[in-house]
Amino acid sequence: MKARHLLTTIGMAALMLSSGAAYAQSKMTIGFSQVGSESGWRAAETKVSKIEAEKRGVDLKISDAQQKQENQIRAVRSFIAQGVDAIFIAPVVSTGWDSVLKEAKDAKIPVVLLDRSIETKDESLYLTAVTSDTVYEGKVAGEWLAKETGGKCNVVELQGTVGSSPAINRKKGFDQVVAANPGMKIVRTQSGDFTRTKGKEVMESFIKAEGGGKNICAVYAHNDDMAIGAIQAIKEAGLKPGKDIKIVSIDAVPDIFKAMADGEANVTVELTPNMAGPALDALMAFKKDGKQPPKWIQTESKVYTPETAKAEYDKRKELY
C-alpha cells in the first residue's frame, strides 16, 4: 500500500510539473512598439491593450516610441533579440519598415500591425493589420459637413502626423467629398501632429490668416485632440466653436463628447481603441493551429452627433 501510495504521489507530482511546463510554454510574450501617448485615444489604446492581454494571460511588453520611427525600429530589434513570441507595431509612419520586418520574419516572429498600415511590396512581412477604414472615416466626416452646409463651406484642415497612414487616408476620404461639392473648399491645411497643443497653435494661425476666423465655415481635424485644441483657439478669438465655426473630427474620445454636449463640437467619427483584442485572437489562432488570418481585420467606425453626447461621455470617461 505504501509503495502504491508513493507511486501515485510521484505520478501526481510529475503530472503537475508537466502541466506547469505546458502552461509556461503556452503563455505568450508579445512586444508592442506603441507610437507614443500623443492623444487621449492613443492612451486609451495602450490601456485597452493591457486589459485585453491580461484577459488572455499574455505578457505584453510595451515600448513608447515618443512618435519617432527610429525608436520603434530600435524597439522591434530589441524584441527580436529577446525572442518574444510575436510583435505588435502601431507604425508612426507608413514607409521604411521592410528591413526590420524582414529581420523579424527571419527570426520566425510574426508581426501584427495595429491601428495603422504600412507601404510595402512584400505583405508576407506581417501577419495581419488590425485597423479601421481610415479613408471611410474621412469620407463620412466630409459627407456630414456637406449635408449640414448644403455643400458650401470654407474648411480649414488639421492634418495628422505627416506620412502616417491615418493622415494620408483621412485626407483622401474627405477630399473625395470636397471634389464632389464645388462649393466646398479647403482654404488652409497643415499638420497638427495629432496633438492638442499643436492643433491649437495651427488653428490660431488659420484664424489670423482668414479674417479673424470670419472666412472659416468649419474645422476638419484628423483627430479629436487637435479639434479640442482648435476649440480653445476659436474661443480665445472671441468666436463660438460649433456655431460660428463647425467642428468635425475623428476618434470619439470623451473630451469631444463633452464639447458636443456643451454645444462646442458638431460631429465625431469613432475609432475604437480596442485593436489588440482582435489582434490577439487572430495571433492565438495562428499559433495554435496555423490558421492564417485575413491580411486586413477591419474594425467598425460610427458617426456620433450631439444627441447622444452625454451618454457616450459617461460610457467612455473611465477608459481614457
Automatic annotation (TrEMBL):
Domain Periplasmic binding protein span(s) in chain numbering: 30-279
Entry keyword Membrane: no
Major localisation: other
Alphabetized UniProt keyword annotations: Signal
Domain of life where this protein originates: Bacteria
Listed Gene3D superfamilies: 3.40.50.2300
Pfam families, sorted: Peripla_BP_4 (PF13407)
GO cellular component: cell envelope
Entry's Gene Ontology molecular function annotations: carbohydrate binding
Keyword Kinase (UniProt): no
Record's subcellular location: Cell envelope
InterPro entries associated with the record: Peripla_BP_I (IPR028082), SBP_2_dom (IPR025997), YtfQ_transport (IPR054837)
Signal peptide: 1-24
Family that this chain belongs to: Belongs to the bacterial solute-binding protein 2 family.
Protein name: ABC transporter substrate-binding protein
Source organism (scientific name): Microvirga aerilata
